[in-house]
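Troubleshooting: if your tokenizer reports a length mismatch, compare your output against this known-good record of 315 residues.
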Amino acid sequence: MPTRFRSTLFGDLDVDPKYDVAIGAMTHFVVGGKVDTLVRPKSVDALSKMLRRCHDSQVPFRILGKGANLLVDDDGVDGIVVKLDDACFKQTRYHRTNNVDSLHAMAGADLATTLMETVRNGLDGLTAMAGIPASVGGAIRMNAGGKFGSISDSLETITCLTSMGELVTHAKKDIRFSYRESRISEPIILSSTFILQKCDPIKIRDKVKEIFEWKRSRQPLADSSAGCAFKNPLLQDGTRISAGKLIDNAGLKGHSVGGASISSQHANFIITTKDATARNVIDLMQKVRERVEEKTQIHLENEVVVWSRDPEVVR
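Known-good structure output:
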């Protein structure tokens, strides 16, 4: 980002800008390059004004959550990356109205921490999120979930910021949610509300523990990985088939490129070593797509989000 934009975009705003930041190291892959500018807003008003200025100046921006489903190319990314980790973007509040329990969560709230708060309060509704590393906003953006359910299941409303910095609130029924996808047109999710059910805290705790144990026995949770690399593809008859099974059947489990390899525990997980590069991961994912399509005529779609200065890299 040209230096001349810095004072124009941030000079009088309550934000914390840093330049040439190695954001690849902030992802779960722990690989990848830098961003021109990393900005941490200190208020919703500062974020709103900055978005409008980025729009007017045609400066691109991205949102960095927990970095759990993200791969940053070795050459990094241009423009601005916004991180909502100030306390004002991590707040949660509980309400009870007419015997209905709800949770209001800002987008920067940690999903795991929020889940455990609901468990301690004897409230069910986010249990399916056990073992999913994400911010609340990031989880909604990709409709995070798995075998036990999706975050949109208990969602009631979403409040967003448009590219012009304007507040917009949507009811869940007005947003199309599907497998690992949400059709939210606004660039920033600011907050959300969830409808929860009062339950026995011990039963909810046991349910969360059961989900954790199920995942721990099947997924390489202790390794440097961004979770599932590919979405489970939809077949012509409307059913989904396991991407991990397709990759395993293609004989790719354990295959590696440089410091990136396909997990021997779960073939849809790509894990990295300290010597890995983002291009190792990108090249390995391309080889997986090619081999699976060659053997099955099924195209695997990325679940991992790739950021790059090169549009050809982002598939």
